[in-house]
């Protein structure tokens, strides 16, 4: 063991004291935040202007802030399509330059014509155009966030393919994605070639889902966003001039809205109930890409947790679709023991375990050796396997 737990114990104790103090103060912060939410609820039109004029990522309200929707009736039969993905990242110290994407899916129909399809498909990427995004003299390797964007595109493409397959007549379908619909691509200068290469294909696949006439939603477990609390802070907190009671005294150095998340504001939702609908505020350079697909979101109490559900604008504009998504998400979480059942099954199909990674590495090394491709692991890679002392 290389960790010195004795030395770390002082840090752990300090963290424990901080968390204990925060736990004492936290209910008061949340209560203040909810009071402010109710007080500003009818001023949502003015708050839209606050969000649009800010240079921060704030929620844009699409109605009264304290609006709530009780759990709608669940259809007697419905079909849900879920996709998820996993990957083997590029390793510049390995025997070859490549990455692997594995997309899993679950198509489950409940009620009339009950059926299920669970499967996955892996693809290996090794060509130069796969490994690098090239623009003039610039060569950006596909890794980290860029690889995640490629994987998200593959997941959405598979969802579009499955949504285009007709289901039982009269049985509604919902497409569920894992995580967020916001694919973040770092700013690049002087051109937007990274966004053109990564974001445009993803949004094109979202449009393919839209063209099937099926609503799309993404599910986020234990969200940590602060877009609504940020909006309340922007609209109310004047601590640089005359701090409010909540920010005064020991809290003056940090506004309470910087200490609580959106989840705290809506954790008093009734079982199955959803919050008001908000639109995400994107950076101007991203907004022009999303256009009619700018993500909107609401929070819903699924029983086991408060989840964030994101939908593109073309889904948010249809109240019947929002009700269907709310009912289906709640039912899926009941069937999945706290997490949407279809997403859990898709994840099981997609996940690449550590055993899978080792098996594929041995398989790849053996296949390349039989083909006469020389082994070229780096010295750093070799040193990790061998110990000199």
What can you tell me about this protein's structure?
- The chain is an alpha+beta fold.
- It folds into two domains: 11-53 and 229-260, no CATH class; 58-225 and 261-365, archaeoglobus fulgidus dsm 4304 fold, CATH 3.30.2170.
- It is built from 13 helices and eleven strands.
- The strands form two sheets. The chain has a nine-stranded mixed β-sheet, with helices on both faces. A two-stranded antiparallel sheet has the order 5-6.
- The longest helix is centred in the first third of the chain and has 35 residues, at 5-39.
- 33% of the residues are buried.
- The mean pLDDT is 89.
Concise synopsis of the structure shown:
The chain is α+β, with helices and mostly antiparallel strands and 389 residues long.
Give the SSE layout.
Blueprint: H1 5-39, H2 44-53, E1 59-61, E2 78-88, E3 99-110, E4 115-125, H3 128-131, E5 132-135, E6 138-141, H4 145-163, E7 173-178, H5 193-211, E8 216-220, H6 227-236, H7 262-266, E9 278-280, H8 284-290, E10 296-301, E11 306-311, H9 313-316, H10 319-335, H11 341-350, H12 354-370, H13 379-385
Parallel strand pairs: 2-7, 7-8
Antiparallel strand pairs: 1-9, 2-3, 3-4, 5-6, 8-11, 9-10, 10-11
Helix pairs in contact: 4-5
């Amino acid at each position: 063991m290389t960790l010195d737990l004795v030395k770390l114990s002082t840090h752990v104790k300090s963290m424990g004291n901080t968390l204990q103090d925060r736990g004492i103060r936290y209910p008061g912060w949340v209560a203040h935040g909810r009071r402010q939410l109710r007080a500003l609820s009818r001023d949502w039109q003015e708050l839209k202007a606050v969000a649009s004029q800010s240079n921060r990522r704030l929620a844009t309200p699409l109605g009264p802030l304290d609006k709530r929707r009780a759990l709608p009736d669940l259809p007697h039969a419905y079909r849900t399509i879920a996709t998820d993905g996993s990957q083997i990242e590029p390793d510049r110290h390995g025997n070859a330059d490549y990455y692997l994407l594995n997309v899993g899916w679950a198509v489950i129909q409940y009620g009339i014509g009950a059926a299920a399809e669970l499967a996955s498909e892996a693809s290996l990427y090794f060509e130069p155009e796969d490994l690098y995004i090239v623009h003039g003299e610039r060569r950006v390797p596909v890794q980290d966030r860029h690889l995640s964007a490629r994987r998200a595109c593959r997941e959405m493409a598979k969802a579009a393919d499955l949504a285009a397959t007709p289901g039982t007549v009269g049985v509604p379908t919902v497409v569920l994605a894992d995580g967020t619909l916001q694919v973040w691509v770092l700013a690049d200068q002087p051109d937007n070639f990274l966004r053109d290469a990564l974001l445009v294909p993803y949004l094109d696949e979202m449009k393919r889902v839209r063209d099937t006439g099926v609503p799309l939603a993404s599910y986020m477990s234990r969200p940590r966003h602060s877009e609504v609390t940020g909006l309340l802070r922007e609209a109310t907190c004047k601590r640089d001039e005359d701090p409010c009671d909540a920010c005064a005294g020991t809290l003056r150095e940090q506004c309470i809205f910087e200490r609580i998340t959106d989840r705290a504001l809506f954790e008093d939702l009734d079982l199955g109930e959803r919050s008001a609908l908000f639109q995400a505020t994107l950076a101007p350079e991203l907004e022009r890409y999303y256009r009619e697909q700018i993500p909107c979101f609401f929070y819903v109490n699924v029983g086991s947790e408060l989840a964030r559900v994101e939908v593109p604008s073309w889904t948010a504009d249809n109240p019947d679709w929002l009700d269907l998504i709310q009912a289906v998400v709640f039912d899926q979480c009941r069937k999945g023991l706290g997490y949407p059942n279809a997403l859990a099954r898709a994840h099981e199909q997609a996940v690449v375990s550590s055993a899978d990674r080792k098996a594929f590495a041995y398989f790849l090394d053996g296949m390349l050796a039989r083909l006469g491709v020389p082994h070229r692991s780096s010295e750093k890679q070799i040193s990790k396997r061998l110990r000199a002392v």
